[in-house]
């Protein structure tokens, strides 16, 4: 179990080593072409040290990598793994903790996200009113300006659903999420309506686990699985706790959580049935 930047630094190193091998170069030959010490190539490939995006560009040039999407992703990966640079969330670094910035960074790079939620609506699907109520409840006593900034962060994250290409987002929600009256009746009515709208986007899939399912594999452990384009074995599972997040990247962990997610989908209502159920719950809000 590792923290986000360490996971991505290791993954970046593994991919750069794979590309070097594919180019037919030894680490010594690559170092000579770049004017580096061989030990630097080794440290980068083992994830022992970060690497700047411009150095990743130089490595990819030496390895004759022409895939523009792969090049762009590896350069972004270098920035988020501690190799310099930043995304839009860097402007909020004094407000949001490092583990949240790590999470947003992963989210911004991912091609697909699969998530199980048992307590709250996923951040990418929240309305402003719901996000405000959740944040206020989670961080009691937060100054009003900080609260609004955190809501702004939550809403800005949702740009990934409107990007080109957009993030493919699949969520399984425990029915309890929809009955928990976060923010009051009107906030929940608006939130439920928003769910029925956004779930109709072609790249968003929403399934509901009804109470009738009873206990299920994810009952006490919500999780998120990030998957990335082009890079093999780059998926990461994130488990959120009250004061920290854990990042799992071992193959057996990824297989276990992917299998659990498929099981949850199999037990959940279909997307169409889920929309009908959400609409019915919304009609029952008084």
Tell me what the structure shows:
InterPro entries: Cro/C1-type_HTH, DUF5753, Lambda_DNA-bd_dom_sf. Pfam families: DUF5753, HTH_31. Residues 16-70 form the HTH cro/C1-type domain. It comes from Streptomyces stephensoniae. This is Helix-turn-helix transcriptional regulator. The chain is of the alpha/beta class. The chain has twelve helices and six strands. The protein has helices spanning 4-23, 27-34, 38-46, 53-62, 68-83, 98-109, 128-138, 144-157, 176-179, 185-198, 251-267, 271-283; strands at 112-117, 168-174, 204-209, 223-227, 236-240, 245-248. Strands 3-2-1-4-5-6 form a six-stranded mixed sheet, sandwiched between helices. α1 packs parallel to α4 and α4 runs antiparallel to α5 (68-83). The model has no long low-confidence stretch (mean pLDDT 89).
Main sheet record: 6 strands, mixed
Work out the strand percent: 5-15%
The share of residues in helices is: 40-55%
Spans of at least 5 consecutive residues whose pLDDT stays below 50 are: none
Put simply, the count of helices is: 12
Radius of gyration: 21 Å
Domain HTH cro/C1-type: 16-70
Pfam families: DUF5753, HTH_31
Protein name: Helix-turn-helix transcriptional regulator
Organism: Streptomyces stephensoniae
Features:
12% strand, six-stranded mixed β-sheet, alpha/beta, 286 residues, Helix-turn-helix transcriptional regulator, Lambda_DNA-bd_dom_sf, DUF5753, 12 helices
Per-chain topology:
Blueprint: H1 4-23, H2 27-34, H3 38-46, H4 53-62, H5 68-83, H6 98-109, E1 112-117, H7 128-138, H8 144-157, E2 168-174, H9 176-179, H10 185-198, E3 204-209, E4 223-227, E5 236-240, E6 245-248, H11 251-267, H12 271-283
Parallel strand pairs: 1-2, 2-3
Antiparallel strand pairs: 1-4, 4-5, 5-6
